[in-house]
Amino acid sequence: MxxxxxxxxxxxxxxxxxxxxxxxxxxxxxxxTYGLKPxxxxxxxxxxxxxxxxxxxxxxxxxxxxxxxxxxxKTHNTVYHPSCTVKTGSDDDPSEDS
Length: 98
Prior knowledge:
- The chain is mostly helical.
- Helix content is 34%, strand content 6%.
- The two termini are 29 Å apart.
- It comes from Streptomyces brasiliensis.
- Residues 2-95 form the Glucose-methanol-choline oxidoreductase C-terminal domain.
């Protein structure tokens, strides 16, 4: 699913209202919840024991997919900078053409 960017008000200076629609597609939910399980197994390997320590969050008692997803909903953020594929700026510089 695609997110949305909408006007918050009629004033162009106001920030837009961004709706990224995180986790509205079942695939996204599966990727995130299932991804935590192998990450935990990797972190539990003896070779990493000197580096990892106890799991601070969501904690070892959180096991079910629903519990993991609840934690993800409460704590997730994006590490990507949303951008576009449209060229911006003027076409005065021919070396800028793509």
